[in-house]
Amino acid sequence: MITRKSKREIEKMKAAGDLLVACHKEVAKMIKPGITTMEIDKFVEDYLAKHGATPEQKGFSDYPYAICASINDEICHGFPREEQLQDGDIVTIDMVVNLDGGLADSAWTYAVGNVDEKGLKLMEVAKTSLYKGIEQAQVGKRLGDIGHAIQTYAEGEGFSVVRDFTGHGIGPTIHEEPHIPHFGLPNKGLRLKEGMVITIEPMINEGTWQSQMDSNNWTARTIDKGRSAQYEHTVVITKEGPVLTTDQEQ
């Protein structure tokens, strides 16, 4: 069932988003060669607890960590680990914050040290594709408009768009209807209405879009070992246009 959020619910989600952004900004300071994603996971859990919040994905379908940490060819749902990040890696940190029942979900890909030119281009295209999708998140537009904007831009830059994982509705639970594909045809699919809250989170690959699942049944990675980057915002559909609860640019 697709729910439209009340003003009170949206205010709670905005508060959760503010905390998530503050946490991501602290994580950004930590990203360097030699740190482990397990250290980042512990930092995030402690940081949220200190601010009266919890990591919503921990325990969701038995997921064991506060963050997802996906490195290089991992597309999403990478497990934090004890191995150190290496100079030249890219790592996506994805987290969902629950603050007083309000949820916020955001992923960000970080460069570890000195990343090569193609890796930096991948990250830039992935980030820009997110905002291309957000531009279409307007009352009266359709889901296909979001996916089409992302797909045409990313493919036009020589990259591919993952099909197997999508954005989603959010609040009061972590994953709700509708699914938000990051590919598609304009003027197709569900029409967006005021009060809907969704995530837009394109996963962009430097090679083919197909994925394969690791033995942990969570982590997806590219089938050709090409790198993958992802950026995600939680977006409120309003009459005035899309409102980001997780705006890292603020």
From TrEMBL:
Q: Which UniProt keywords apply?
A: Aminopeptidase, Hydrolase, Metal-binding, Protease
Domain (Peptidase M24): give its ranges: 11-239
Q: Which GO terms describe its molecular function?
A: initiator methionyl aminopeptidase activity
Where along this sequence does the record place binding of a divalent metal cation 1?
Answer: D94, D105, E232
According to the UniProt entry, what is the EC number of this protein?
A: 3.4.11.18
- The EC class name is hydrolase
Query: Signal sequence: where?
Result: none
Name of a matching Pfam family = Peptidase_M24
Q: Which InterPro entries match?
A: Creatinase/aminopeptidase-like, Pept_M24, Pept_M24_MAP, Pept_M24A_MAP1
Quote the cofactor binding remark.
Binds 2 divalent metal cations per subunit. Has a high-affinity and a low affinity metal-binding site. The true nature of the physiological cofactor is under debate. The enzyme is active with cobalt, zinc, manganese or divalent iron ions. Most likely, methionine aminopeptidases function as mononuclear Fe(2+)-metalloproteases under physiological conditions, and the catalytically relevant metal-binding site has been assigned to the histidine-containing high-affinity site.
Requisite cofactors: Co(2+); Zn(2+); Mn(2+); Fe(2+)
Q: Which reaction does it catalyse?
A: Release of N-terminal amino acids, preferentially methionine, from peptides and arylamides
**Where, by residue number, does substrate bind?**
H77, H175
Residues annotated as binding a divalent metal cation 2: D105, H168, E201, E232
Q: How does it assemble?
A: Monomer.
Role summary: Removes the N-terminal methionine from nascent proteins. The N-terminal methionine is often cleaved when the second residue in the primary sequence is small and uncharged (Met-Ala-, Cys, Gly, Pro, Ser, Thr, or Val). Requires deformylation of the N(alpha)-formylated initiator methionine before it can be hydrolyzed.
Cite the NCBIfam families for this sequence: met_pdase_I
Which PANTHER family does the record match to this protein?
METHIONINE AMINOPEPTIDASE
Q: What is stated as this protein's family in its record?
A: Belongs to the peptidase M24A family. Methionine aminopeptidase type 1 subfamily.
The protein's name: Methionine aminopeptidase
Species of origin: Virgibacillus kekensis
What would be the name of the gene that encodes this protein? map
